[in-house]
Amino acid sequence: MTENIAAETQQDSPEAAGAPATLDIVVLAGGISHERDVSLRSGRRVADALSGAGHRVTVLDPDATLLDAITTRNPDVVWPALHGASGEDGALLSLLEAAGVAFVGSRGDDAALAWSKPTAKTLVARAGIATPKSITLAKETFRDLGAANVLSRVIDRLGTDLVVKPSVGGSAQGVSIVGDASELPRAVVEAYTYSDVALIEKRIQGVELAVGVIDTGDGPRALPAVEIQASSGVYSFDARYNAGETTFFTPARISATAAAHVAETAVAVHELLGLRHVSRIDFILDADGTPWFLEANVLPGLTETSLLPQAIEASGQELGAVYGALAAAARS
């Protein structure tokens, strides 16, 4: 049976005050991916913000009864707060589309494109947006052609200052920073723990930025860029979700010119990949002011330490109001 992990809640109706109509919203959180715990935290936070804004909210943990439960309940909107393959690979989103269910987030086919980091990088590069040089390496190739031979060619092409990551997934799981050739084999094997394909990128030095893009019905717009400064120097899984491990600056400590360029590029990536309602686009801003695209997140984290909520608050808006506006846009 689908687990209801948050009681239905509703504040006083906002309609009396002239606010947007109360919506019946189902938030999906949990799932079976490596990012289940993060998803549960995101789901709780978005549910609290929406119920605090006066909406009726139920949180469901997807299982075999989910589609029937949604059909029976017939909510106004579904909000997938699912991270990892549970939601971001586009499969569940495509099923919601097929069922005619209104939901916050990108359509299934577009989410699938962004979910694949090599595919997203290729599309972005073809549009003339900078992204680090990279090699995509399947586990079978690594094994069948010999690890030493394969990685020697990788180093010849990209050097030894590298970032190795799974080709799909988020929350920095399976991501390694490589500064020496001896570290590369282990980093690739670590990436294979989370995906059968590894993405090996040339590391770009600069300021790490995350730019939220939201569209509440009047076109996508960028939120203030969040600058990320991890105490360890690496924005790892622990640095993302443990308070005090990372210092965030919102807005980022960059020039107005650079901020405008990053915002423009984030919106361009959002539109190029066909994303909808909300996304987070990650960059490295180099010393010359070039934003280098790293990846796009179609269902960005919404936990207490996540970047999108920080950007919304830095823009002077309340989370509940923005989340409600996104839900309303998804319904229309």
UniProtKB/TrEMBL annotation:
Mg(2+) 1 binds at D282, E295. Its cofactor is Mg(2+); Mn(2+). Keywords: ATP-binding, Cell shape, Cell wall biogenesis/degradation, Cytoplasm, Ligase, Magnesium, Manganese, Metal-binding, Nucleotide-binding, Peptidoglycan synthesis. Pfam families: Dala_Dala_lig_C. Mg(2+) 2 binds at E295, N297. Transmembrane segments: none annotated. InterPro entries: ATP-grasp, ATP_grasp_subdomain_1, D_ala_D_ala, Dala_Dala_lig_C, PreATP-grasp_dom_sf. It is an enzyme of class 6 (ligase). Pathway: Cell wall biogenesis; peptidoglycan biosynthesis. GO terms for molecular function: ATP binding; D-alanine-D-alanine ligase activity; metal ion binding. It comes from the Bacteria. It is found in: Cytoplasm. Binds 2 magnesium or manganese ions per subunit. The active site is at E35, S171, S306. GO terms for biological process: cell wall organization; peptidoglycan biosynthetic process; regulation of cell shape. Residues 121-328 form the ATP-grasp domain. One of its GO terms (cellular component) is cytoplasm. It catalyses: 2 D-alanine + ATP = D-alanyl-D-alanine + ADP + phosphate + H(+). Cell wall formation. PANTHER family: D-ALANINE--D-ALANINE LIGASE, D-ALANINE--D-ALANINE LIGASE B. This is D-alanine--D-alanine ligase. It comes from Microterricola gilva. The lineage of its organism: Bacteria, Bacillati, Actinomycetota, Actinomycetes, Micrococcales. The gene is ddl.
